[in-house]
Design a protein that fits this description.
heterodimer; A: mainly alpha; about 55% helix; B: Rossmann fold; 7-stranded parallel β-sheet; binds NADP nicotinamide-adenine-dinucleotide phosphate
Chain lengths: ~120, ~240
């Protein structure tokens, strides 16, 4: 378990774990960009994401989705990295970071779906 | 390699029977309950056994226990979601807090324990979950409406979770026992027990080892193609 984790470490670890899952699936020449969508671009299913979160919890010792962040707010690789950065430094999070924006998007999607 | 079995509520009753049975098979066993019994004390210090005093409704403590178990024994192969409480009271007379408590203990705690274990099992790409349900999930009985609701919910959970986790080589089943003698039923009148026995085609209550045998079967390789099912072990009372 890495603690505390630098922002750069977190990005490296998250990217490595995503790459490992894609390799297991048989993908080759994987290049991961921050704005890649986990599902639409990389083709990760919700169970792939569950495995990813489980592996990251084992490696980093934190689960940002237990309390801090709703997983529905996470769409891109950068959103995921931001969630783990938040878990290590919740006080340092600014309302303008990518995750807060993603959370706003998710909330407005939910409101549309429920008619609220 | 020895299998690791996590059993909630292993201090007495069916949980204790399962702890004994799995240890006899050479498995590592981890269990928690709120209070320590002489049964637990006798095993303390054994390398293949890990017990902690935890209230199953304390989700953070339970999540920590699952991760501790995985670090200590290297894996979690089987979860038996066994903890349960029952009170005999008709719904209109139940205190709201008792209703909430029963749902928290019998259902919410079981879902969250399964969630924590499923994460370990996902990493292993294998595992097996057995939820302990009840015949009350299948047939209605006066005085157990809330208990029945929690157990029927567990059976629904079993089926959907089996679909979610099946592709990752994790099986999920439930066992629905008829009545068997433990602390849970000690408040029942002998006449009530006799009535249950008379209505049971096999004319008796279950022996605890007969319920445990069903759990052992579902947790074994012999059940390797069984998932999403509820195995009713009730001497025929629901047939
Ligand atoms: N006995 C029957 O006739 C019967 C029939 C059908 C189904 N079942 C089901 O079979 C399962 C086992 O029943 P049993 O008869 O063996 O029960 P039991 O003898 O009353 O034992 C229940 C176990 O669960 C633990 N427990 C209860 N509440 C807990 C909590 N909040 N946190 C942690 N542990 C808790 C108890 O320890 P502590 O109290 O120390 O916490 C004990 O170890 C239950 O799910 C029950 O619903 C029983």
């Amino acid at each position: 378990m890495l603690n505390p984790c630098s922002a750069a470490d977190i990005q490296t670890i998250v990217h490595a774990r995503i790459r490992a899952i894609l390799e297991d699936r048989g993908d080759e020449n994987i290049v991961i960009a921050g704005d890649d969508k986990l599902n639409a671009t990389l083709g990760l299913t919700s169970m792939d994401l569950a495995l990813l979160v489980s592996e990251l919890e084992a490696e980093l010792g934190v689960d940002p989705f237990a309390k801090l962040v709703s997983v529905t707010a996470v769409r891109s690789v950068d959103d995921l990295v931001a969630a783990y950065r938040l878990a290590f430094a919740p006080a340092a999070a600014t309302p303008d970071d990518g995750l807060a924006e993603a959370a706003r998007r998710a909330a407005s999607r939910r409101a549309r779906m429920t008619g609220g | 390699m020895s299998r690791t079995i996590l059993i909630s509520g292993g201090s007495r009753g069916l949980g204790a029977e399962l702890v004994t049975g799995f240890r006899a098979q050479g498995c590592n066993v981890a269990s928690f309950s709120r209070s320590k019994t002489a049964f637990i004390e006798a095993m303390e210090g054994s390398a293949d056994f890990h017990w902690q005093a935890i209230d199953g409704r304390d989700h953070e403590a339970v999540h920590g226990f699952v991760n501790d178990t995985a670090s200590r024994f290297g894996r979690v192969d089987v979860l038996v979601n066994n903890t349960g409480i029952a009170t005999d009271s008709v719904l209109p007379l139940m205190r709201p807090d008792d209703i909430i408590d029963m749902v928290d203990t019998n259902l919410t705690a079981a879902l969250l324990l399964a969630q924590s274990c499923s994460r370990v099992m996902l990493r292993q790409a294998s595992g097996c979950i057995v939820n302990i349900s009840s015949v009350n999930a299948i047939r209605g009985h006066e005085g157990v409406a809330v208990y029945s609701a929690t157990k029927a919910a567990l059976d629904g959970f079993t089926r959907s979770l089996a679909r979610e986790l099946g592709p990752r080589n994790i099986r999920v089943n439930s066992v629905a026992p008829g009545y068997f003698e433990t602390d849970m039923v000690k408040g029942m009148e002998p006449a009530q027990m006799d009535r249950i026995a008379r209505r049971t085609p096999l004319r008796r209550l279950a022996r605890i080892e007969e319920i445990a045998a069903a759990v052992h079967f579902l947790a074994s390789e012999q059940a390797s193609f069984i998932t999403g099912q509820t195995l009713v072990v009730d001497g025929g009372i629901t047939c």
